[in-house]
């Protein structure tokens, strides 16, 4: 079996952590049990480009239980948990191509190593796998029947491809499922981003000015958690509706050029490019702390910061101090990459339980339906979304009401008024 990981000797440690994560993933565990008996993915070759974490390992085990031949590479150079990669190789015999801290050349070599296995279905987080497949490895496109995409950034890229008519197979936008973005993005990103920032810096948030760039679901969660830690939260936005919501939620809202002058902590969660730029770094306080929890580090204009910088050094793991010409220090966390995965462990497993349940059921749906689908980006079927919500509630011991026959009739009727 071909693979490329840091150290196979880390496998036992990884196995224990995967088991720990599995304890908080009841929905995915139920799906795995059904997959083991029904084998809905039997004979399928599935290439996954995801963050190599304990929760992802649980998903890989579930897909393999369903009969798939699974191949895994990292979707971010800093997000790999090396012990998890080792455990998947040794204990689950799943080929993994991922090493924490790999350079860009190795990152894309690993994506190509995965593609060498000629996947029939892809599972992506950020669309690097899909874009590489369409550009550098287009000779394999005819092998691919469908795929899924995990995150906002990837969906933006895929919808652009579809609009230009270059997307060559159907893909389900897992991120758009209510049980994914309402919970994973808000509660998962909110908690894990704060976790990553605190692990990297060991700084107190209470009483500081914490700038959240972007008030989508990730931004909402991050702003809520930062306020819960006692920070004075400032939101920057380009969408007037989102900005209005932030105001109504009690946060300060202002342009980034104003926030840059007063912020102590900054975190981008927009999915866009150069959100914090050279002119913003140029007016920041001495000691400002900069991080990103959007998918790619392009949210920060790191080249612009480099132009202002006379020297750099790592003062702590994941904290790069940039000393400007006038002596001010700007600290960038985790190379500007996803701080919740670079310096911490990503989302809690109970949240990823729903996200990866969506992935597993969406791939099952795609295997059954890809022949009838156009080359486009599709939402997760509502039936799957509702099924996952019901099973999560059941696992939490929560019951809800059912509509009475009278209520169903009322909702379906236009003749019954006041």
TrEMBL record:
GO terms for cellular component: cytosol. It catalyses: S-adenosyl-L-homocysteine + H2O = L-homocysteine + adenosine. Pfam families: AdoHcyase (PF05221), AdoHcyase_NAD (PF00670). CDD domains: SAHH (cd00401). Its EC number is 3.13.2.1. Residues 185-346 form the S-adenosyl-L-homocysteine hydrolase NAD binding domain. It is an enzyme of class 3 (hydrolase). Substrate binds at residues 53, 125, 150, 180, 184. One of its GO terms (biological process) is one-carbon metabolic process. NAD(+) binds at residues 151-153, 185, 214-221, 237, 272, 293-295, 340, 347. May play a key role in the regulation of the intracellular concentration of adenosylhomocysteine. Pathway: Amino-acid biosynthesis; L-homocysteine biosynthesis; L-homocysteine from S-adenosyl-L-homocysteine: step 1/1. Its main location: cytoplasm. Belongs to the adenosylhomocysteinase family. This is Adenosylhomocysteinase. Keywords: Cytoplasm, Hydrolase, NAD, One-carbon metabolism.
């Amino acid at each position: 079996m071909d693979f490329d990981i840091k150290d196979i000797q880390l496998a036992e440690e990884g196995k224990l952590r995967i088991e720990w994560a599995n304890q908080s993933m009841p929905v995915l565990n139920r799906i795995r049990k059904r997959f083991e008996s029904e084998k809905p993915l039997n004979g399928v070759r599935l290439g996954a480009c995801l963050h190599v974490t304990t929760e992802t390992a649980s998903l890989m085990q579930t897909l393999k239980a369903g009969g798939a031949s699974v191949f895994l590479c990292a979707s971010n150079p800093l997000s790999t948990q090396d012990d998890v990669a080792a455990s998947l190789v040794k204990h689950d015999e799943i080929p993994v191509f991922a090493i924490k801290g790999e350079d860009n050349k190795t990152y894309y070599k690993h994506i190509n190593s995965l593609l060498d296995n000629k996947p029939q279905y892809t599972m992506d987080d950020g669309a690097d796998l899909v874009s590489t497949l369409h550009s550098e490895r287009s000779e394999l496109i005819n092998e691919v029947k469908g795929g899924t995409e995990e995150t906002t950034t990837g969906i933006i890229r895929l919808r652009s491809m579809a609009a230009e008519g270059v997307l060559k197979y159907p893909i389900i936008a897992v991120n758009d499922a209510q049980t994914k973005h309402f919970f994973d993005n808000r509660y998962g990103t909110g908690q894990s981003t704060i976790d990553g920032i605190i692990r990297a810096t060991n700084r107190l948030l209470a009483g500081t000015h914490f700038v959240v760039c972007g008030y989508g679901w990730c931004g909402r969660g991050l702003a809520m958690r930062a306020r819960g830690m006692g920070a004075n939260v400032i939101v920057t936005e380009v969408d007037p509706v989102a900005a209005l919501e932030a105001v109504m939620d009690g946060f300060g809202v202002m342009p980034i050029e104003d926030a840059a002058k007063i912020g102590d902590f900054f975190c981008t969660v927009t999915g866009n490019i150069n959100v914090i730029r050279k002119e913003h770094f140029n007016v920041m306080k001495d000691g400002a702390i900069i991080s990103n929890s959007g998918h790619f580090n392009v949210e920060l204009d790191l080249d612009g910061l480099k132009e202002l910088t006379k020297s750099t050094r790592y003062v702590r793991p994941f904290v790069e101090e940039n000393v400007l010409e006038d002596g001010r220090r700007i600290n960038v966390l985790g190379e500007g990459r996803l701080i919740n995965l670079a310096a911490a462990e990503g989302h809690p497993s109970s949240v990823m339980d729903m996200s990866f349940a969506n992935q597993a059921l969406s791939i099952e749906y795609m295997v059954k339906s890809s022949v009838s689908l156009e080359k486009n980006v599709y939402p997760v079927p509502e039936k799957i979304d509702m099924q996952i919500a019901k099973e999560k509630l059941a696992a939490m011991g929560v019951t809800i009401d059912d509509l009475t026959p009278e209520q169903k009739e009322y909702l379906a009727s236009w003749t019954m008024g006041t």
